[in-house]
């Protein structure tokens, strides 16, 4: 049982050896693919740097086009914004004035119609009343006829005489004032074309964009020239940025390294096959030993007969003893070889793991390499001397590796922003900053004269004159009262019928004939004069009512409009300069911000410091939806190549399986010693002896 317990760990150690040997061989064969991937990434880094830099610089064209578009639309962007501050209040009061101008025109027309109709109806009314007076006089003369003195007819004549008063005047339009004075005053108000003055007020607001465009022509031209100068300045940045030049230095080194690697790979694979075969032989020998032990234990246990003497043991038990002794013999011959491989792999694997892999993981290795004057006694910082030819610049392997691991730009990782790059870019930024200050100075010269008068003094005076024209003070009740009366006190046709009935009761004669003639005359007056007059009188009554409604509260309306007009004009007069200054500054800030955002984004893109977020936060730089996802020379391939060489190839592909190999084989080798002792003892009980041994209790 003890021997079996020793064999299981021994077997596990051998399995570890086989697994480590296979893992090491498999991944060594993948070195070619790993090298191809890393060299391809490094070449991509070199090849895309130039196009990425061109891309960043080319975005200035987009920025300039956007700025030019805003400059071309200064009428809408600046003039429109200024106009928006004036339209709400200005248009409301101008709409009120415009409506009042229309009311003045309508009132004038209606007033003249009323005055004309009043004059004409007065004249027609006098003609009617004159005709009725003639009829009345004729009837009075006829009633003096002797027939009326007869007692039988006197009552009838008296009845007719008593009814003559119904032919008197019922309407006295003469007592109503003719409206000539009011008409003249309103006409005087209309002499000022208030509608055209209101339109001029509208125009003073609506033409603000055009006035802004006309007054800013020189400033726009100056700013455009400045923008073109900035473009010329930016075009020179590519020649001053040494990223491509610096990276191209490594191209030959990469080519040489790649050619050396591919040249040595066949030799490495050849020696790797020798190593694999050696490790395989060791594992197979140990496996053979374990096979002998397992077979010996198996045959010995199943063939053992406790009643048999040593000379009479069976063939199976004897075979088990032979297998055990064979395992012991092989162990004696090859154990030293196994121990030699264990020591060799332990020295290599353990030391690489402790001296290279662990320090690489916690970056202590970089700190050792970065020790001043360690790799080159003439250079304080080896990497800065190799890359920048300036060994005094604090450029360390740890810093570059960390920055590249975070996928920052090579510009940031290699500290070119503080060394060579600072010499190239800083003057350009100063020049561009000077151009931006020049643009701000040009915008500050902007002096816009946008005086806006809603309504001239003549228009304001017309409103006030209309309010005191007297149309509101007319005694409309008296006009309405008179025009609402019927033309006659009695209906003439009924009066004529009654008169005819009385005449028919009289005896034939001159009196009767006279009465009948007057009856016909009354009917004729009614048909030819009164009937046509009644619609005109009703129309006059309606016109007076309409005029009364139209001028009701006239003075209050005009006063409110004038007050609102004065208030709005005061707001425009005192607030417009501040509005112009504020909107001009905001417009200038928008134009300038395009380039400030562009410069910030370009710098962050070159440095690789979250350039995407910087650009996306500056949404005013580009049209909505345009996104930039490139960063200049993101150097993660450098960190990846270093990780592949050290962490992946050296540590994971070689060191770890080698450590597993020596651990497994070493454990199996160590367990061989007690296994040999136990195997020898067991073989004594399983093998057939040539002589009997005597045992005592």
UniProtKB/TrEMBL annotation:
GO MF, one annotated term: cholesterol binding
Main location, first listed in the record: membrane
Keyword terms, alphabetized: Glycoprotein, Membrane, Signal, Transmembrane, Transmembrane helix
Topology with respect to the bilayer: Multi-pass membrane protein
Extent of the signal sequence: 1-17
Compartment list: Cell projection, Microvillus membrane
InterPro entries: Prominin
One GO cellular component, as annotated: prominosome
A GO BP annotation: photoreceptor cell maintenance
Residue intervals passing through the bilayer: 276-302, 322-348, 660-680
Family: Belongs to the prominin family.
Protein name, as recorded: Prominin-1
Organism: Cnephaeus nilssonii (Northern bat)
């Amino acid at each position: 049982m003890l021997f079996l317990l020793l064999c299981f760990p021994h077997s596990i150690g051998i399995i570890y050896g086989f697994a480590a040997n296979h893992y090491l061989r498999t991944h060594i064969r993948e070195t070619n693919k790993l090298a191809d991937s890393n060299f391809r990434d490094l070449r991509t880094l070199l090849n895309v740097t130039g196009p990425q830099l061109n891309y960043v610089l080319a975005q200035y064209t987009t920025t300039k086009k956007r700025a030019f578009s805003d400059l071309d639309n200064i009428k809408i962007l600046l003039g429109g914004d200024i106009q928006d501050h004036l339209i709400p209040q200005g248009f409301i009061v101008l709409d009120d004035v415009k409506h009042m101008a229309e009311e003045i025109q309508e009132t004038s027309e209606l007033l003249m119609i009323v005055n004309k109709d009043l004059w004409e109806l007065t004249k027609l009314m006098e003609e009617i009343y004159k005709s009725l007076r003639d009829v009345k006089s004729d009837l009075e003369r006829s009633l003096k006829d002797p027939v009326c003195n007869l007692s039988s007819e006197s009552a009838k004549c008296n009845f007719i005489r008593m009814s003559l008063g119904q032919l008197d005047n019922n309407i006295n339009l003469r007592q109503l004032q003719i409206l000539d004075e009011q008409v003249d005053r309103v006409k005087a108000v209309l002499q000022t074309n208030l509608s055209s003055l209101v339109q001029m007020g509208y125009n003073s607001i609506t033409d603000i964009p055009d006035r802004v465009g006309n007054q800013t022509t020189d400033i726009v031209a100056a700013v455009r020239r400045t923008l073109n100068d900035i473009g010329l300045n930016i075009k020179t940045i590519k020649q001053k940025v040494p990223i491509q030049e610096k990276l191209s230095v490594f191209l030959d080194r990469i080519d040489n390294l790649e050619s050396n690697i591919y040249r040595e790979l066949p030799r490495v694979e050849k020696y790797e096959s020798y190593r694999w075969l050696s490790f395989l032989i060791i594992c197979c020998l140990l496996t053979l030993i374990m096979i002998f032990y397992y077979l010996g234990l198996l045959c010995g246990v199943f063939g053992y007969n406790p009643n048999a003497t040593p000379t009479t043991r069976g063939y199976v038990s004897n075979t088990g003893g032979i297998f055990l002794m064979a395992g012991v013999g092989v162990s004696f011959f090859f154990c030293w070889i196994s121990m030699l491989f264990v020591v060799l792999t332990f020295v290599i694997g353990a030391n690489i793991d402790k001296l290279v892999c662990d320090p690489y993981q916690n970056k202590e290795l970089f700190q050792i390499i970065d020790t001043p004057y360690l790799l080159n006694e003439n250079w304080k910082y080896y990497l800065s001397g190799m890359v920048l030819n300036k060994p005094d610049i604090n450029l360390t392997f740890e810093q570059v590796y960390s920055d590249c691991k975070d996928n920052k730009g090579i510009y940031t990782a290699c500290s070119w922003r503080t060394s060579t790059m600072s010499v190239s870019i800083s003057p350009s930024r100063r020049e561009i900053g000077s151009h931006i200050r020049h643009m701000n100075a040009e915008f500050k010269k902007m002096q816009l004269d946008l005086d806006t008068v809603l309504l001239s003094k003549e228009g304001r005076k017309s409103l006030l004159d209309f309010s005191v024209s007297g149309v509101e003070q007319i005694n409309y009740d008296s006009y309405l009262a008179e025009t609402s009366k019927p033309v006659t006190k009695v209906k003439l046709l009924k009066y004529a019928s009654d008169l005819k009935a009385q005449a028919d009761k009289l005896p034939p004669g001159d009196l009767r004939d006279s009465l009948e003639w007057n009856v016909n005359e009354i009917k004729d007056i009614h048909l030819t004069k009164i009937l046509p007059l009644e619609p005109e009188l009703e129309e006059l009554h309606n016109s007076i009512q309409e005029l009364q409604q139209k001028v009701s509260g006239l003075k209050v309306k005009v006063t409110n409009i004038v007050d609102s007009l004065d208030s709005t004009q005061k707001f425009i007069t005192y607030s417009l300069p501040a509005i112009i200054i504020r909107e001009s500054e905001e417009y200038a800030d928008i134009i300038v911000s395009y380039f400030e955002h562009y410069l910030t984004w370009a710098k962050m893109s070159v440095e690789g410091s979250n350039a995407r977020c910087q650009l996306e936060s500056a949404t005013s730089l580009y049209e909505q939806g345009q996104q930039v996802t490139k960063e200049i020379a993101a150097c993660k391939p450098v960190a990846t190549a270093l990780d592949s060489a050290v962490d992946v190839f050296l540590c994971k592909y070689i060191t770890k399986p080698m450590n597993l190999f020596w651990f497994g084989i070493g454990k199996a080798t160590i367990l061989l010693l007690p296994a040999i002792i136990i195997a020898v003892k067991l073989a004594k009980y399983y093998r057939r002896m040539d002589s009997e041994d005597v045992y005592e209790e």
